[in-house]
């Protein structure tokens, strides 16, 4: 039988909250079923413990992990499938509350703890709406909706024994100091609606259930999206009317309105075994997790170093995060005093020379991953860009990018754009891409196979036509649907790219010179046999 290390910030002997109660019931169910369960508080846990117990064949179940140390979380993330998460709220969002965002979807900069969720074997949600929020915000498929919290037979007996038809008029309101329980707002609601109310609360479960059962109604106006809310269900088991909002996970379950009183008690009792079986099956089954171990990202710093932090956050929060992020720094007075060492990157190439566009592709030769992803300094990808590229590689293998160009003539300015500028719904073949590249490392050799017509410009053109001529490798723009920016390779192209620091508008290089150089690159490719999408001839 499997062995479990159960990790939490606190256990039920310290805090009798809903999460701790549910965890304690699960631990006892596991032990009753023959599992060897070791409990660890995050305050006492080190990465050495993780290594030791993993080597002994233990699976880790993580409950609340606010107090988990960085070395421990890193050790867990580095071994996907070795742990599962019992998610009691929304620890993947800074605010812990999806309800503050439209459609419960947080922007990528508000997503936190992505890696620990992405690399988990399972994430156990307690309700349908909680599971949906996790999936849509993290874009992952390892979420298991349990659809119920857990109660012991003893607790259910206490509830059943307190069912009474003799109830006082008015409603009960929990007297809680926890701001998420929103006692003050709930009281205000009762006052506005003219509902007589009484504050209740006791650390003794039997006494609390007795108090809850004494009133006709239970009122709870949540401040955040509750993952389940046990008290709401206890009130319905006691035959009380529940007055609340849709910010309660249990309401999202289809069975919620079907049962009440003793029927609900029996349903909850039956569901306990089903929930446990779902957890046990998910822990024991074999499951593969897609990771970004095959991707190295290379960023470029020149005149916009202030964009780097935003880019790095977006890359760390990819649904398929990269194995490493490298930074190529071209010399310029605009970045002379910038603190590059303070960035969350794995390698930095400091240069006392401006190698322009080709330098970062030289650094890419040192990578040891299957895929490379390069980004211009004005390019911030959506959270599913890497995922989008990997899926596209499965159907349209080639050099991929976020801004595509389809040439209409021998002069570069005669072109149509694809990708984020035009938002193509389907994968589209183009002649070249820029802003963000995604390609196999082995294809780099085509870029360097022949000396380019100029080192000053056109690395995107050179790479595309050399790969097409010598390797038969096409270039594509993956889907950039208008209604899903998370799939886009660039989500702030206009905001970040159109300024006086763009090379194409730089006063030090005339507009005519810049595009003249690109014309030479295009014509060099065509003269050497480049078959463009529209068959351009010289």
Short recap of the structure:
By secondary structure, the protein is of the alpha/beta class. It has 17 helices and 19 strands.
Task: Please provide a written account of the structure.
The chain has about 550 residues and is of the alpha/beta class. It folds into 3 domains: about 5-145, 3-Layer(aba) Sandwich (Rossmann fold); about 155-265, 3-Layer(aba) Sandwich (Cobalt-precorrin-4 Transmethylase, domain 1), CATH 3.40.1010; about 295-525, Spore Coat Polysaccharide Biosynthesis Protein SpsA, Chain A (Alpha-Beta Complex), CATH 3.90.550. The protein contains 17 helices and 19 strands. It has helices at about 20-30, 45-55, 70-75, 115-120, 130-140, 155-160, 185-195, 205-215, 230-235, 260-285, 310-315, 360-365, 385-395, 445, 460-470, 495, 510-525; strands spanning about 5-10, 35-40, 60, 85, 120-125, 145, 170-175, 195-200, 215-220, 240-245, 295-300, 325-330, 345-350, 370-375, 400-405, 415-420, 430, 430-440, 475. The strands form 3 sheets. Strands 11, 12, 13, 14, 15, 16, 17, 18 and 19 form a 9-stranded mixed sheet that branches. Helix 2 runs parallel beside helix 3 (about 70-75).
């Amino acid at each position: 039988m499997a062995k479990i290390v159960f990790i939490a910030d606190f256990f039920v002997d310290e805090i009798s909250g809903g999460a701790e109660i549910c965890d304690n019931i699960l631990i006892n169910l596991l032990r009753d079923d023959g599992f060897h369960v070791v409990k660890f508080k995050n305050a006492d846990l080190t990465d050495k413990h993780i290594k030791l117990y993993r080597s002994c064949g233990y699976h880790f179940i993580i409950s609340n992990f606010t107090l988990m140390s960085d070395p421990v979380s890193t050790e867990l993330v580095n071994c996907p499938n070795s742990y599962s998460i019992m998610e009691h709220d929304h620890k993947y969002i800074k605010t812990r509350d999806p309800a503050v965002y439209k459609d419960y979807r947080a922007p990528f900069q508000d997503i936190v703890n992505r890696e620990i969720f992405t690399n988990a074997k399972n994430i156990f949600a307690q309700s349908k709406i909680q599971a949906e929020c996790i999936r849509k915000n993290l874009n992952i498929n390892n979420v298991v909706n349990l659809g119920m919290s857990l109660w012991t037979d003893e607790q259910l007996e206490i509830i059943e024994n307190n069912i009474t038809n003799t109830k006082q008029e008015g409603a009960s309101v929990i007297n809680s100091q926890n701001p998420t329980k929103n006692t003050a707002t709930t009281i205000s609601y009762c006052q506005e609606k003219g509902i007589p109310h009484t504050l209740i609360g006791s650390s003794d479960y039997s006494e609390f259930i007795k108090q809850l059962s004494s009133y006709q109604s239970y009122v709870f106006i949540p401040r955040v999206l509750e993952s389940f809310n046990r008290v709401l269900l206890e009130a319905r088991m006691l035959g009380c009317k529940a007055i609340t909002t849709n910010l309660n996970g249990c309401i999202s379950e289809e069975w919620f309105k079907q049962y009440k009183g003793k029927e609900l008690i029996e349903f909850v009792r039956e569901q306990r075994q089903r929930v446990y079986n779902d957890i046990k099956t998910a822990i024991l089954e074999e499951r593969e997790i897609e990771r970004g171990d095959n991707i190295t990202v290379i960023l470029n710093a020149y005149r916009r170093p202030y964009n780097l932090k935003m880019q790095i956050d977006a890359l760390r929060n990819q649904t398929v995060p990269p194995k490493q992020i490298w930074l190529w720094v071209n010399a310029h007075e605009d970045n002379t005093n910038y603190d590059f060492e303070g960035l969350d990157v794995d390698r930095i190439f400091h240069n006392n020379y401006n190698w322009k566009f080709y330098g970062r592709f030289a650094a890419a030769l040192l990578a040891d991953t299957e895929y490379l992803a390069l980004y211009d300094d004005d390019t911030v990808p959506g959270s599913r860009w890497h995922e989008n590229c990997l899926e596209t590689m499965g159907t349209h293998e080639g050099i991929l990018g976020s801004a595509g160009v389809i040439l209409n003539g021998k002069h570069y300015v005669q072109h149509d754009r694809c990708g984020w500028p035009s938002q193509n719904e389907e994968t589209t073949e183009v002649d070249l891409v820029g802003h963000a590249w995604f390609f196999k490392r082995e294809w780099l050799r085509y870029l360097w196979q022949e000396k380019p017509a100029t080192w000053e410009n056109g690395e995107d053109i050179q790479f595309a036509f050399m790969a097409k001529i010598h390797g038969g490798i096409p270039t594509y723009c993956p889907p950039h649907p208008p209604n899903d920016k998370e799939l886009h390779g660039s989500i702030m192209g206009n905001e970040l790219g159109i300024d006086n620091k763009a090379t194409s508008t730089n006063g030090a290089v005339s507009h005519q010179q810049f595009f003249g150089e690109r014309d030479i690159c295009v014509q060099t490719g065509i003269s050497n046999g480049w078959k463009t999408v529209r068959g351009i001839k010289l």
